Amino acid sequence: MKTMLYTMACLVSAVQACQTESVERQQKDESVVAALQQATRPLQTEQDLDRVLADIGNARYVLLGEASHGTAEFYQWRAAITQRLIQEKGFTLVLVEGDWPDAYALNQYVQGQRTAERASDVLQAFDRWPTWMWANTEIAQLADWMRTYTTQTNRNVAFYGLDVYSLWESLEQLTSQQATDPQTAELARQALQCFGGYRGDEQAYAVATLQGTRCNDALTLLLNHVQTRYANATDTASFNLVQNALVAVNAEQYYYTMVRDDAESWNIRDRHMAATLDRLTQLHGRDSKVIIWAHNTHVGDARYTDMAQSGMVNLGQLVRESHAGEGVYILGFGTYQGEVIAGDYWGATPERMPVPASPDGTWDALLHQVSPATKFVRLIQVRTDSLLAQTRGQRAIGVVYNPSAEAGNYVPTRLAERYDGLIFIDRTQALSPLSVQNQAGKEPGKAPVGAYALIND
User: Fold this and answer.
1) What is the pLDDT of residue 62?
2) N or C: which end of the chain has fewer CB atoms below 10 A?
3) Per-residue pLDDT, 48
4) Does the residue 19 lie in any domain?
5) pLDDT tens string 205-224
6) Could you tell me if 289 and 143 lie in one domain?
7) Which residues, 6+ apart, have CB-to-CB distance to 11 below 8 Å?
8) Distance CA 78, CA 64 (A)
9) CA-CA distances (angstroms) from residue 329 to 302, 346, 378, 393?
């Protein structure tokens, strides 16, 4: 009897402890919500962006995130911010988490160097899955606006891709230089021949490197030649050739590494983005000012997520470390629920998918309790608040998504340090992709491997 009474007492004590813990957790959450509420401003019209632009101030680098690659509102608000930064603060470069060759074609359209009736015509060339990331109505409208603005104001506003994936496309761009630079074209052809049957299948090549296959020597020879030939060139066309050679070298290194070390392959990619950013600002001069569009996991400072524990860096961290003196502002994006464009697997037909409500205790669930539904949170206002100095999950949806497996879509985050501000849309809608046809003779690339590669690509 005594044993039974003791057991019952223990159970009662455990229940009471659990209830106490639950009450304390709820009170803590309510305090965090109250602190976030104090830093929140409504975001209903473009005029409400005045507070965002005021916080940006004289920063030279503005990084605009997204919690998914397939949410319409993220693109719409980033486009509105981008237009105002260009018009009101003299920003000159829009750099995106996209392939260099495809984005360069769109830049030629923006600059009036490519004949096309509309940006959507140029975006038909974006044929590496996931096409909807950039071949969508929101980007088409922004590019058309940039072209009109550039023409009417005679100001040079450019659009470039920062990413490293376009191994085959970048080499093909170099082989097309036969008429003007036959040696470069020949070296690029030799590099493509080295890849042989792996062309178009980066993952197969990556696996083959485990058995000793490697094409880095041919790519290094190509890069050395191109860098020497165009060492003193300052024009965009020459920069394009050097950049394609750099992409090819770094892409091969990325695919070689991704089957060996997840963290280091991620670092190769984001360091390539940071180096490309620096080369572009050097090309465009000291007065250039930069807007970057990329996933939160690229622009939100990695030092304040679990990425740091894995030895990862990212673009936002690298820009802050290198350019803090010139002014860096990072704006994250988030959502509580809604819908998104994504695929069931890499290469799948994109579809509208539901985004379920965020789990209790996540940043997204707490922000859901902050009014209004669509808002701008001035995280710099609460950065020193000890209530915000805690790690919670923040939603991160990639191009491959399973709404029923939400647990893997949250990055442990110290929110007020990862970003300077946050735009939160409580219920979001999916992007509107353009109808894109693959170009003849081109094959879609294979999926990158690794935890963060799969989340964000």
Assistant:
1) 98
2) N
3) 97
4) no
5) 999 999 999 999 999 999 99
6) yes
7) none
8) 7
9) 15, 32, 12, 22
pLDDT surpassing 90 at residue 15? no
Asked whether the beta carbons of 195 and 215 are under 8 A apart, the reply is: yes
Token code pair at residue 375? 């808002």
Q: Which of 260, 292, 313 is the last residue of a domain?
A: 260
What are the backbone angles phi and psi of residue 424, rounded to the nearest 5°?
A: -125, 125
| Tens of pLDDT, residues 129-169 | 899 999 999 999 999 999 999 999 999 999 999 999 999 99
Range of the domain at 178: 167-260
- Compute φ and ψ for 341, nearest 5 degrees: -90, 125
> Is residue 413 helix, strand or coil?
strand
Q: Beta-strand (E) ranges in 343-384?
A: 351-355, 374-377
Report the distance separating Cα 370 and Cα 368, nearest Å: 6
Cβ distance 416 to 383 under 8 Å?
yes
Top mean-pLDDT range of 21-25, 126-130, 229-233, 441-445: 229-233
* Res 451: pLDDT: 41
Q: Do residues 195 and 132 share a domain?
A: no
Q: Which residues contact 363 (CB under 8 A, 6 or more apart)?
A: 334, 392, 393, 394, 413, 415
> Does the model's pTM come out above 0.85?
yes
Same domain, 256 and 327: no
The SS3 of residue 377 is strand
Least confident of 96-110, 126-140, 288-302: 126-140
Q: Is the pLDDT of residue 355 over 90?
A: yes
- CA 316 to CA 423: how far, in whole Å? 17
Return the ∠ at Cα 134 (arms to 133 and 138), rounded to 5°: 105
- Same domain, residue pair 135 and 255: no
Long-range contacts of 144-147 (CB under 8 A, 24+ apart): 144/118, 144/119, 145/79, 145/83, 146/86, 146/94, 146/110, 147/109, 147/110, 147/111, 147/112, 147/119
Tokens describing residue 307: 């990425």
Reference 195, options 222, 163, 164; nearest CA is 222
Question: How confident is the prediction for the chain on average, in pLDDT?
Answer: 91
| pLDDT tens string 1-11 | 555 555 555 55
Q: Kindly state whether residue 5 falls inside one of the protein's structural domains.
A: no
Helix H or strand E encompassing 364: helix 363-368
State how far the Cα of 368 lies from the Cα of 314, in Å rounded to an integer. 27
